[in-house]
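Wed. Picked up where I left off yesterday with M16 family metallopeptidase. The coffee machine is broken again, so keeping this brief.
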Amino acid sequence: MKKGLSLFLVVSAISLTQCKNEAYQSQSTTETAAATPEKKEYKYETVPGDPLNARVYTLDNGLKVYLTDYEDAPRIQTFIAVRAGSKNDPADATGLAHYLEHMVFKGTSELGTQDWAKEKVELDKIEALYEKYRATKDEAARKKIYHQIDSVSGVAAKYAVANEYDKILGAIGAKGTNAYTWVDQTVYTNNIPSNQLERWVALEADRFGDMVPRIFHTELEAVYEEKNRTLDSDGRKVAEVINTALFPTHQYGTQTTIGTIEHLKNPSITEIKKYYNTYYVPNNMAIALSGDIDFDQTIRLIDAEFGKLQKKPLPEFKVAQEQPIQKPIVKEVLGPDAENVSVSYRFPGITTRETLVLQMISNILYNGQAGLIDLNLNQQQKVLQAYAYDTQMKDYSTFRVGGAPRQGQSLDQVKDMLLAQIELVKQGKFEDWVIPAIVNNNKISLMESYEDNSNRADAFVSAFIYGMDWKDYVNRPDEFAKITKQEVVDVANKYLGNNYVLVYKRTGKDPNAQKVEKPAITPVAVNRDAQSAYYKEFMAKEATALEPVFVNYKEDIKESKLKSNIPLLYTQNKENGLFQLYYILDMGTNNDPKLGMAVNYLKYLGNDKYTAEELKKEFYKLGTSFNVFSSGDQVYVSLTGLDENFEKGLALFESLLQNPKADKEALDNMVTGMLKARSDAKKNKSVILNQAMVNYAKYGAKNPFTTVLSEKELKALKPQELVNIIKSIPTYEHRVLYYGPRETDNLVAALNAGHNVPAKLKPTPAEKVYAELDIKQPTVYWADYDMVQAELLFLSKSVPYTADIVPVVRMYNEYMGGIVFQELRESKALAYSTYSVYSPASKKNRSNYLQSYIGAQADKLPEAMVGMQELLNNMPLADANFENAKASLRNSISSERVTKSDILFDYERAKRLGIEHDIREDVYKSANSMTFDQMKEFQQKYIKNQPQAILVIGSKDRLNFKELEKYGKVKQLSLKEIFGY
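Structure written out below (tokens, as returned):
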């Protein structure tokens, strides 16, 4: 993957189209057929009742084109999907599809080069050297060859222009430029302004017709780092063990997407080219677009460019047939994370009826509200956490249940409880209302998902990758709704027996820990100010300008008053029948740590009419869900779902807030569960670095993260004490936010009738504010963690938030984001993931911070730190990058639209910062006239040579402490210091 290996989003009933099962039809435009795209007749397929109103075209060369018009903003979500993934890798060159994905971003024989004829000579040498390197076994000889590769790569890089593709996409206002590779597919993503469609189509047709693997060995090092990140992930290791055991014959288990260490060390550019020429052909690809499009114009643009690609015969993929698993396969994984257990099963591929039934089984067991695991294990706190989910793939699918133990509980006890829930399904011991409720809730989830262009376009990708006719994909929810209880029982008994893979993830040092060794790499030139002829010509073409639309809070938000003088702010949902309701209080856990406990306690409580489990069921039946969330300075109470059940859902929720029934056993279980969760958090490197250490650096030992009730205080809590806090929430001053289909009078009447509050509300208490530390002297804080990589955060405190510096902040982040990535990853191959962001505060009177990150092998620590510090203190001038940053800001903002409930929350954010207007307007107005000198002035005033807290997490056996001492006093932080317990 280009910037982070994506986990595939499981195709489930939630992501499937809702419609009537009507006859499939084909339509065509009425224009006269002709040879040119401008006059050509385009046939397309549609499905009656399709909520996407999609058109599916097939070009003469076999390219599939899926289009849906959804004009939420003048933008288009684009996916280009290739029906080939890691299962198509040669067995002796695993990871090849993923390598190739990276290379497709490197340009063509025209894009990304200053002199293709000279560059090609050097690239051919590099390709030949890699073949020689691959065939050589003697280590001394291999080092000499790699030195040659490094040397020739430096020469080749002089002719290259790094990141030209990314520069173009940034300049035209694209977002989310990335890609992912998985077992069945490789998919390239962009979100573009609609006025840039013609330029985007031409650019993409060029790069998918002509791939040049330039700047290869530094990108290869980025892939090494990506591999090391997976070796530091216990979750990834568990998944690999599961797949290997479930699929001993099929490529789903015999090879991984990122490849083996041995194959990573022996890449073949020749094999990558073969793969590209074999699978990256139009009859094996699809373009999926959702957004502000004109169907006829779009298909003509695509055909004019992509129609030039030549179709080719595709090799047949023979699906390896797996033999039945006769008895449980037991595996163990060791690593620093908290322990857990998982049980996994093998199922047929996604297009089978049985796997559709598997989706239902998965929901019956776990749906986040009223599944058997939800109610019997999580709600009753019999385990710390448990879940179930299905992962559907082309040839086979998997089903997994898992859980984490409570204190003193064995993994086998958790496993037994999970298997007991599966047995209930096999015996049909679930209520008859469950299946209809699952169907209904999935329809609601689908409506929500199709409010987003990314989800709409991704539905097309799923249909294409898995070989489904769009008709079948659209009608799949109707088939899902026809599943019977007996069918569920039959499929469960057929597939969920003793044929599982059981994995114990235990806490401990992994005796088989590996890492990809760091090769000797000389940084290559990135030629920031150089431009290819292609780039110049591309950027000279102008697109029709889009006018920005900013939020006018007074006009775009309706205001009213409820009883007790409660402010009501709302915007109307004119798209579907869903609502979102929020009560917001300006008080939180900084006022009272017990408030957070009370909020968590609520989900385990019933009321005077229903038990906690019965309440979950009632909400699920209504197609509604509630949540209560507390932060340091706010409480959010939310209710969402079908507006037709608004009154019923509101009454149910209000009855819980008004009459929660104290439950001592639930509180005791919650406290012991929290204590175990706290212990587990100390084994999570992300929590250690990004929460515990960052808060310590900002505030000292006493900070919002460590302000929690002690174990003694937790155990002393009384149920009624927390119940009283819950009941007090609606008695404080608060405001109500609503996004839904209701008109003013109806909404106000429903809320006045249903929202139970006293005649006079209490003022919220003053917030407890934690003083931010002044970082006067550079200090290095480090925490020991058993890992292959090291992760570093450079943290600098800056000035308090003021709106006047926001435009230059946005420009700085836009500009330096590309510079940091280009220099530390592309040129020096020091990291897979790196960034630097100046972050404005989220509330007035709070400080802004500069936060810079790099994750790299521990032995790259010296170079990584030098590289980051050099960029922060000596911001390089790159005219082309600066002009791109300006264009990117203008194009992004002009095509952005804040809509729906986002309007309300945008206003909430603005109020917290003390501003009364859409701050993007300031940024847009400043973008055209801003100079590099202005940005440099900002950089020198607020960033250069500012005292830093440098936070490091890594293994003490691998960290170079002498190097760390160059940057300040080194202090080890114990877990007790940074967690407060």
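Quick read: The chain has 36 helices and 25 strands.
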